[in-house]
Amino acid sequence: MNFAAGLAPYGITPGQYGVLNCLWTYGPCTPKEIAKELRLENSTISGVLDRMQKRGVIDRELDPNDRRSIQVVLTEEGKAMKDDVLRVIDDLNDVALSPFTQQERDTLIYCLRKIGNVESHGSPR
Question: Which domains does the chain show, CATH number per domain?
């Protein structure tokens, strides 16, 4: 099973999973914050959010602290699917990492975290 196939029963795509994971981790966010976290253009995230809102997993609300700003929030359905979706992700990770020893997994995770701390211009965050 691949990433897209694992998420298909929940009606979400890999890109939409990124948005959900961001909201599960940080709570309500602006579209700009989500785009920055996922390293996407604002115009790209807008279409993703439109499809997710139609699907019923997120909603857009006025920011109570700044009524000029919109926040993306999880719906009850978006909250309810968290455990099941994360279980699928864990299973997919286990399959992907199965050829590696524990030491190799630890090294890979270390390297990926190090890569994740580098901005596109090559400097550490």
Answer: 3-98 (1.10.10.10)
Distance CA 74, CA 53 (A): 9
Concatenate the DSSP letters of all residues of 18-80 into one string. Answer: HHHHHHHHH-SB-HHHHHHHHT--HHHHHHHHHHHHHHTSEEEEEETTEEEEEEEEE-HHHHH
Specify the pTM. Answer: 0.83
Tell me: the pLDDT tens digits for 2-39?
Answer: 889 999 999 999 999 999 999 999 999 999 999 999 99
